[in-house]
Queue: 3 jobs
Job 1
Amino acid sequence: MSGILYGVGLGPGDPELMTLRAHRLIAAAKVVAYPALAGGASFARSIAADVIAKGATEIVMDVPMTVERAPAQAAYDLGAAQISEALERGDDVVCLCEGDPFFYGSFMYLFARLSGRFETQIVPGVTSITTCAAAARMPLAARNERLTVLPGPLPEAELRARIEGAESVAIMKVGRHLAKIRGVIEGLGLMGRAVYVERASLPEEVVCPLAEAPENAPYFSMILLTKGADPWL
Amino acid sequence: MSGILYGVGLGPGDPELMTLRAHRLIAAAKVVAYPALAGGASFARSIAADVIAKGATEIVMDVPMTVERAPAQAAYDLGAAQISEALERGDDVVCLCEGDPFFYGSFMYLFARLSGRFETQIVPGVTSITTCAAAARMPLAARNERLTVLPGPLPEAELRARIEGAESVAIMKVGRHLAKIRGVIEGLGLMGRAVYVERASLPEEVVCPLAEAPENAPYFSMILLTKGADPWL
């Protein structure tokens, strides 16, 4: 009998923001799999480091960060083949996913390759957007407000149009797009309502008004913006 | 010295989707507080029931479900006064919040009343939207896709306009607005792409194509809709 594939959300980075189920599955896993920046560290593994059992087999997918999709997809092909082998010999495989597996997560590439052939279970995790809202002490959405989640790499004109039509906004993957996004928000006269959050929940977390954000934002940074009346009243 | 106020996300309903931090804080709490439907049960308390310490003091806020805001706000006034007393005598108070405290959560009303006077910490939780995506086996957003979160009570014309301009959509608080929402999605020719999820992560969870959704949807139901190309490839 084949093993079960688990896509397990680890939350935003603080290991204590892992769910009880994620903790149980990881601690019991004989095989774990996770992506790493080609040749570099794995953020997912670092979150789960203290929970992974001694002697567990680790399948590392070295994913290159290129604009073209083919090299990354080749890495998932290779990872899926290794995971298949483990599942076929009857071992469960726990895939470690930063945040939530289906919220801008790379687990969907493994899901696409493997869920037709193997039993697959998804364990949701705490996302970076609510973690950033907690860090910024800023309710994300109240009552009948709309929330729009926008990836920072979107073109400037599209970002402007989407922010203009939105109420609450979370802009993910800010990184090297910070200057562009700041320009858009400044142009809309919304700087006073925008908060910058970097590495939410980690010891090196940064929270500040967007106007005071550092020049160089890491990939794991976000801008939150609310336009409604004070949502607390 | 005053106690600390904790706004603790409990996740979507399955107690195992609580974070390790939520579990630790609730288990150690001498005072917990939570909303309940006036005269009825508390969903938040039911999620945490097995973790609350024996002998803990429980502050229950009976919140009436009325369209007018004043009666609910009066309930939070009363709750805030009781929580203040506990904090002032030096006890920490753990507020139990379904899902995430700052994602359509009522904790923001307590935060508005108390965070100026007492140290307040927010613990994010797993939201219903990624839990529904996991239940539906449907990645919510990939790569540079936009995600729009819409409350079901929005007027029909606004829902139509927002869904038309969106890529991935999560419609929350479907409940008695199901027929209206279904009409909008049908009108846009998107029925084939919409999934209905009810009570995600609970034993009575329902997942089905929107076309097959039951007539009477509970408050805790959601519709997910993706319009992009297959996001898995």
Job 2
Amino acid sequence: IGQPEQRTTRLYSHEQPATGPSRGSPGGTLPSANRTFPVGVALGLAWSAMGGEPVYVESATRRKQSGQGSIVCTGSLGEVMRESVQIAHTVAKRYIRQYSSSKQDSASEEAANFFEDHEIHLHVPAGGTPKDGSSGGITLATALLSLATQCPVLSQVAMSGELTITGKVLPIRGVKEKVMAARSAVGVDQIILSRHNQGQVTELPSYITQGLTFHFVDTFEEVAALALYKQKTDR
Amino acid sequence: IGQPEQRTTRLYSHEQPATGPSRGSPGGTLPSANRTFPVGVALGLAWSAMGGEPVYVESATRRKQSGQGSIVCTGSLGEVMRESVQIAHTVAKRYIRQYSSSKQDSASEEAANFFEDHEIHLHVPAGGTPKDGSSGGITLATALLSLATQCPVLSQVAMSGELTITGKVLPIRGVKEKVMAARSAVGVDQIILSRHNQGQVTELPSYITQGLTFHFVDTFEEVAALALYKQKTDR
Amino acid sequence: IGQPEQRTTRLYSHEQPATGPSRGSPGGTLPSANRTFPVGVALGLAWSAMGGEPVYVESATRRKQSGQGSIVCTGSLGEVMRESVQIAHTVAKRYIRQYSSSKQDSASEEAANFFEDHEIHLHVPAGGTPKDGSSGGITLATALLSLATQCPVLSQVAMSGELTITGKVLPIRGVKEKVMAARSAVGVDQIILSRHNQGQVTELPSYITQGLTFHFVDTFEEVAALALYKQKTDR
């Protein structure tokens, strides 16, 4: 069975927004700033000898698993990337627990226990393309957080950064290739990177950075604030 | 997706202290002697053909697991280092059980059972950099003890030493490179090593050891007494 | 992170006795015949192309595991030595069950079920040094028996012998090197070997055997009788 080198670049780029203005508001197209991916999806940036490429991370719940939540991942992920998934799982779990503990309603409590109570399936298309590395960290955690909160990720945002267990965002390599990859993704005009990558971006020629807004962050809290569309979907 | 060779040297070096003086005390900056890492983090020292390097060990709880506590580790750790994590888990578990058994309150009992009742996630950034060896023993156990007690580790302290199951601290190799690595970590001025490494430190030229305080220890009890900031964080 | 080739020769050699005379007896130093290792520790003898070396076996309980006791081992042990650990676990389990069944009190019953009710961690320092072979059998079982009974092992005793599941002690190779290794361990003056090794010991020159007492045994029962200090520690 051959391993197709599928171009997943446009996988979600022409999506209609999954969320809209609150009910009762007049219809019509949303401004691009409010367009989102489906819940559980986030856009990362990969880099290889072939150049950069947008990479979508998808997640979904598989089943209830009260008190023993786990995560299954697919997409020909290597050892390092599988560990990144574990880290993203731990970070998203702590984030949502802290975020929810400030509220007292039962919906918040359900959200707080989301990762403990579900088996999650995380996939990175195309399934036959081998992937590895730690730079997907923040994308993986953002996708999981979207799934847990049911808040979709803004589709104008791409991101790349390693994540540590305490939620710090480490720099990535291949900044130039990844920024060019972000340009190639329809609708993307914002890029989240580690503050430690700021120097490399400053050195890029303006024809590459033109029209893009860069956000340099230290922690996953900042990533979540920038990437998540704050409105919960109605399902 | 490339595997960045990230410098994690300054990952926590500019941290503000995670704990402060007790409530009600006058504000202001803490003296550096009271600055700490976040709870669950400790600073070790690695050594390779490339020289020495500070290495942070991070830990976090993943979920409740009453009576069957376990530990998951990430960070491209080799076989020997994975075994060191098991040893650190065993040693920290016994330490906290003995430490807590002297008190009678319910908080102490909860702490005593911490490792039995939680799945723990231990990570050593950068995720894509392969790591191995047994010299991280005391750092791993200190990070775990910090997590269990919620007492943070002093950020002026770096350490390197193999740990045995009974809590003895064995010597490490690459003393010179590791001491130089400790120098390079901002704010570090104390180093904990096995007593069996005392001879090698004595032979180092003074321009390397200048300004550093060395603690040579026999047991993990001494490490814990030197490294942990005795005040529990408020969370 | 380098893998230090640590000399663990003196790991426990200068230990103060872990147990003492019964309470109320006059103080003072114990005769060396009553000095012991910490509970769960026994001294074996290794042999390689580099010569012989004392090797300590350490064990500790990890957690309660009612009715499904297991054993985890660390210390870069090879396949054959891992199997030796399984055999030692089986032999120690049967030994303590037989030994305890003669008494009727609840403490004896708890001891009888010790291996069924605990996950045990067995470690052989130094962690980074690969070890293999079947000659550690009686040392492994003695360390486990010490842990289960809380009776420490006499620190004047070193031992080497393969163990079968029925408790028979088979001969080992490298007798000369191992006897010399035992000499190098401070305080050791008794060596336990299989009766089938008696011939090789007789042929050793007297400058090697001088001052040492040899015990040649057929079964693990004899090993336990010779090595365990019969007084339970007070903890």
Job 3
Amino acid sequence: MKHAIHGVHSAAATPVTGDGTPDLKLFGDHCRRLLEDGCHGIAMLGTTGEANSFGVRQRIDLVEAAIAGGTPANALLPGTSTPAVADTVELTRHAVQSGAKGVVMLPPYYYKGVSDEGLFRFYARVIEAVADDRLRIVLYHIPQVSQIPLSHALIGRLLEAFPGIVTGIKDSSGDMNNMRAMCETFPALGVLAGADPLMLPLLRLGGAGCITATSNVRADALRIVWDGWNDPAKTEQVEAAQARIDEWRTLSNKYVQLPTIKTMLAKRRGDMAWLNLMPPLVELPEAERNDIWAQMDRLGG
Amino acid sequence: MKHAIHGVHSAAATPVTGDGTPDLKLFGDHCRRLLEDGCHGIAMLGTTGEANSFGVRQRIDLVEAAIAGGTPANALLPGTSTPAVADTVELTRHAVQSGAKGVVMLPPYYYKGVSDEGLFRFYARVIEAVADDRLRIVLYHIPQVSQIPLSHALIGRLLEAFPGIVTGIKDSSGDMNNMRAMCETFPALGVLAGADPLMLPLLRLGGAGCITATSNVRADALRIVWDGWNDPAKTEQVEAAQARIDEWRTLSNKYVQLPTIKTMLAKRRGDMAWLNLMPPLVELPEAERNDIWAQMDRLGG
């Protein structure tokens, strides 16, 4: 694979205790099991991982907990952005020094309607302050949440200024045309699908893999797609796996997505601690939870 | 005045060095001069103060720099929210223990479309973790930036759960109807105008004052409005002062507002260090800067 960061990555959910602190032991176990389920890497502390709801120290602790739980550091892709350069540098430096495969970086998301020049400076200052050749950055395009789209002009400028460091982008916009255009325009950029149904279509366009939420419970099927998509003998198997992923993805979007993913994990892992969320997210009402669990049985667990 | 937090507050801008760290000495001087200009308090580290572009440690350092620069701690109203409960607790606890008059708290602003229950939990967890009767909170309603409006149902619930702690709201929406409704519905809540032109109209409705950006350069006029608005003999003087504020506010909105405020401060204080901004904001182009300076001369400095 030509891209430094490629394969099936889980946007791992982060378990929390009832009093709202990270459940480090359970998280370490979860990351290791995601690798056993078929993931190549763990894109921890993304939107699904409630990264922005944890403090800087908690985020550092979670990276260390993943490693302590048995996940090799070079399988980790932690989200390290905050709206502030200083804290982003601290988190990014820690990830690099821990041996992470790379980091996923949101743009600063407080001010809206900001310029490409301002966004470029944010990334440039972090890269220059971390000052480590091992740094590998996956940009994070999720405009429906961040409200800060990453333009192709910005991406091109970052690739030119920091070749080998800016290596990929996670596109969670769900916009296949944007992913196609990035694959064509930026051959050096590994495009990772942020939405499960786009995994197979993106691979066929030259994409580098995925970072998705459904992989918390269905990594096995994503791995089948990854391993077989380019083998004509496996087309039927691969398309069946993608269809299975899509069913689970549809279920995860039936109610509010993040609490639903955690509701699924509670059943899958048999641990009700998974039901807890960090503010401002809240758990599903009981009726929705019971419905999700019934639907999981219907889909085969 | 019946409200714990009332009067003219400056949404103080934060000077930064060329390498993007807070200029602590210049900030301490600025806060002290804002009091000399007529402010009752310094609402530092808000949207105008680029709070979210600074790390947790830098924000703590800035509170300490304001005090070291000669501003009494009980004139400070720092913004202490981040999207994470843990870092927000750290910043809020530091402000209270430093003797601040209160804190201004944004809701967590990463996830969009969240529930009142989730927002309530965010504030409740911070209040319960800080666990200090001296805590005074001004809620911060700025939906055009945060994308997270504070509903009246949420405000009412917070007032009921934390009487004497949740004491005010800064409304930067510019929506006079919302401010009027809050003054009528919540007599215990001190409503502070976030937009300068609404200072006088809001005081006439029973509001508690303002936290505004234009006060960085025009606090004198805001103080005239505050001191005289309820005195029929001063109506003409007060309305002239409000009109003067409005002229400056209009000028500050001619280009991108925050860089414009800093451009004004560079001229006013005679220190070009004020031109620097934190990413993702950038300085005004030279032609706009020169125009702002010429317009300041026209308005009388």
